Amino acid sequence: MTVQDTTRTDDARVRYEPQDGVLLEVEDLFVEFHTADGIATAINGVSFELHQGESLAILGESGSGKSVTAQAIMGILDMPPAVIPSGHIRYCGQDLLTMPEEQRRKTRGPEVSMIFQDALSSLNPVFPVGWQIAEMFRVHRGMNKSDALQQAVRLMERVQIPAARERVKAYPHQFSGGMRQRIMIAMAIALDPAVLIADEPTTALDVTVQAQIMSLLEELQEERQMGLILITHDLGVVADVADRIAVMYAGRLVEKADVDALYASPAHPYTRGLLESIPRLDQKGQTLAAIGGLPPNLMRIPPGCAFNPRCRMAQDVCRTDRPELREVAPGRLSACHFAEEVIDA
Amino acid sequence: MPEVVLSAQNLVKHYPIKRGVLRRTVGHVKAVDGVSFDLHKGETLGIVGESGCGKSTLGRLLMRLEEPTAGSVTFEGQDWSGASARDTRRLRRDIQIVFQDPYTSLNPRMTVGDIIGEPFEIHADVVPKGGRRQRVQELLDLVGLNPEHINRYPHQFSGGQRQRIGIARGIALNPKVLICDEPVSALDVSVQAQVVNLMEKLQDELGLAYVFIAHDLSVVRHISDRVGVMYLGRMAELGEEDEVYARPTHPYTQALLSAVPVPDPTLRGKRDQIVLVGDVPSPANPPSGCRFHTRCWKAQDVCSTLEPELEPRADGHGEHLSACHFAEPRLVVETVDVTGIEPDDRFVSTDTDDLVDAGAGLGAEGGGEELDSGQAEDRARPPATEDTPQVSDPTRVVEDTRDNQG
């Protein structure tokens, strides 16, 4: 933040209007990391759309590229080593990747905003939390200090932080993990963004706190009609919150579907395997299945389908031809040569 | 019921809080505050609870990595809280531990062979020196790793494989009890299932008893015969897996179970949701009476004054241990019995072996199969240890450090 920002008022904002309800459109995005050891392709041609008021879950394991996708949308990738060789990220029709940095910076917060997994390291330890929330209003709305602080208190109350008026001057370390995540949420929603990206928002939290945070997020989304991108590895959280799911594996989307359809009959062997490999709280005597092997090294993604070395259905074609994401049933996309067999299984 | 192998009686661990120049003790963090239970031969006792409830400290007390403030641990009827260093060492042969973090619990400068073989250095009579290397290879095979990888270093393995190494080290001395402190929580779901299945297989084959400490209630239900729920250093509820999950009587257990997301969107909005208010109080200053009373919807005056005993209380079917004055069963999780239903083997396997060789495309030429892209720098190095020359004592190969990036 520089001094000049504080004088800028709301009127200077570019107006963004969703086109046909589409807020965000990612098209054929590639992200590479150029390291001393070689090029790791973290995102390998990913496309999806986010509609107004929709909850889209991006599901994947470590190294699948789900967090990199979020960082690319926010424009917070470290470049270098990251490189975006091709692709588009359009917010309300405008390409964020070709936009001048000055203009793009003004989308972060008022238009697209993000919650991170680790609230403690995302908050500044040397400033009171109220000051940090108020900063959003000072920088983007040009408010004076006391008005901004008033707004901060109101937001802290909105995210259900007890005794907000007294705690506005407290520092991040004086809050519990759940309360810090609430502060992060308050900052993220401060400027009424149209898109909220939540990157593993509850992974570091205990299960009772996770339930509180997820219900708060759902409530806020409902209230403000935000588009929510929930990035997670937790199939349980997804089932509770998401409308649609995009499953990532080795930097590609392998399946995309409505949440009910995906859980009822997954259309990709990887999704299928994931669903069978989680122990369920509501089942007794379950035989736990596993997907053998490991996700691939992103510097040496296997030819053909990246999942083929772990896939028990793999045929010769899977080792040579990369399956494209295609419609295999109404509203169902899968990147598997044998998706029809999987979906019927 | 089979005989008791390990028994904890009224275990207490308080850590002093020191302040000021003189480091005076100004209070105590009551990490574990009176926990008792028995562990039977060959069973799995799951210990669940949220962070700060004392479950990891409990594990360390059982292993005697921490000296208890009060109370005792007996192994096969022998009290080992006052045991001498020599006796403790002998007892440790029978009680081993597997740690949570497979990245920090293995020495990066030791080969896998050294790591798994190290227990034999201390307990030299278990396996004669000449047979150690072979024994280590047998152990590698047992945990589903390739015995030929004995000379590799930890960084050449993925998280799941490292956890297998930790388990191999844990069972090297043929212990009777294995304490597992969050053994699968650092692993991805697909890998987690492999390790859980491996642990179940080893238990069947070796007759091990597990104390399985974890925060994931679904994993604990899957693996445990009996389950204890901890809150602020005390056991809130303890019983058979079915008793605790299907007929919980303690409000904390009920709230905990209701908060666990279930991967089934058709249950959305249909489950009994108990949302707890506030946070867990500080263990340095736990609430009086029942520790849960500050967050409990059933709390009455008696709860803030009289601490409820962990004793058998009716659960609608029989009775099991619960520490609540107003214990009554509440169905929070509709349980489906899926015993005998096998997963579809067209997509998944219940095989516990690690499928390194099946994944030839997984970048195997580097020797290591790392899990995430963040460790890319480890990967492209030459396959250094594949041909590490044998020194005279094969259990002590330490000369090679070029993998370890100084």
UniProtKB/TrEMBL annotation, chain A:
Pfam families: ABC_tran, oligo_HPY. It is found in: Cell membrane. It is a peripheral membrane protein. The lineage of its organism: Bacteria, Bacillati, Actinomycetota, Actinomycetes, Micrococcales. Residues 24-275 form the ABC transporter domain. The keyword ATP-binding applies. Belongs to the ABC transporter superfamily. Keywords: ATP-binding, Cell membrane, Membrane, Nucleotide-binding, Transport. This is ABC transporter ATP-binding protein. One of its GO terms (molecular function) is ATP binding. InterPro entries: AAA+_ATPase, ABC_Ni/Peptide_Import, ABC_transporter-like_ATP-bd, ABC_transporter-like_CS, Oligopep_ABC_C, P-loop_NTPase. Its main location: membrane.
UniProtKB/TrEMBL annotation, chain B:
Residues 396-406 have a biased composition (Basic and acidic residues). Gene3D superfamilies: P-loop containing nucleotide triphosphate hydrolases. Residues 6-257 form the ABC transporter domain. One of its GO terms (molecular function) is ATP binding. Belongs to the ABC transporter superfamily. Signal peptide: none annotated. It comes from Phycicoccus sonneratiae. Residues 343-406 are annotated as: Disordered. Keywords: ATP-binding, Nucleotide-binding, Transport. Pfam families: ABC_tran, oligo_HPY. This is Dipeptide ABC transporter ATP-binding protein. InterPro entries: AAA+_ATPase, ABC_transp_ATP-bind, ABC_transporter-like_ATP-bd, ABC_transporter-like_CS, Oligopep_ABC_C, P-loop_NTPase. SMART domains: AAA (SM00382).
